[in-house]
């Protein structure tokens, strides 16, 4: 589900973290809508979307499709957790679409291994 809030011209796209949906931003929205055109969306597999549709490899492409559909040629992107990395990956492939990245609780890797603690066991993600 895609939502646009606020009448300002400057787009601010909010990407939620793994295991959540766009509702995590509900307390922040009132502080943003006077200054930004806020774009809310659910990643595939989250919120009202089919959970079987989760596929991180398509997250950046879904973000590109949203920006294209809304005719946004540059935005501020605020991503939480997994969506932080979506913003990073998307900005590498199409840097002109992002004037700023704001990354909350970003991690380059979420799965634990012998040498790294990411917070999740592989079985948790599966």
Automatic annotation (TrEMBL):
<dbReference type="GO" id="GO:0016787">
    <property type="term" value="F:hydrolase activity"/>
</dbReference>
<comment type="similarity">
    <text>Belongs to the AB hydrolase superfamily.</text>
</comment>
<dbReference type="InterPro" id="IPR000073">
    <property type="entry name" value="AB_hydrolase_1"/>
</dbReference>
<protein>
    <recommendedName>
        <fullName>AB hydrolase-1 domain-containing protein</fullName>
    </recommendedName>
</protein>
<dbReference type="InterPro" id="IPR029058">
    <property type="entry name" value="AB_hydrolase_fold"/>
</dbReference>
<feature type="domain" description="AB hydrolase-1">
    <location>
        <begin position="11"/>
        <end position="111"/>
    </location>
</feature>
<dbReference type="Pfam" id="PF00561">
    <property type="entry name" value="Abhydrolase_1"/>
</dbReference>
């Amino acid at each position: 589900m895609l939502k646009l809030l606020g009448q300002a011209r400057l787009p601010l796209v909010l990407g939620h973290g793994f295991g959540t949906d766009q509702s995590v931003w509900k307390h922040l929205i009132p502080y943003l809508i006077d200054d930004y055109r806020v774009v809310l969306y659910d990643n595939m597999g989250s919120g009202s979307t089919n959970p079987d549709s989760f596929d991180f490899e398509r997250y950046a492409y879904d973000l590109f499709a949203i920006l294209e559909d809304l005719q946004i040629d540059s935005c501020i992107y605020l991503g939480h957790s997994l969506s932080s990395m979506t913003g990073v990956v998307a900005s590498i492939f199409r840097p002109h679409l992002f004037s700023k990245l704001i990354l909350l609780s970003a991690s380059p890797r979420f799965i634990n291994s012998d040498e790294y603690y990411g917070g999740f066991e592989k079985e948790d993600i599966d």
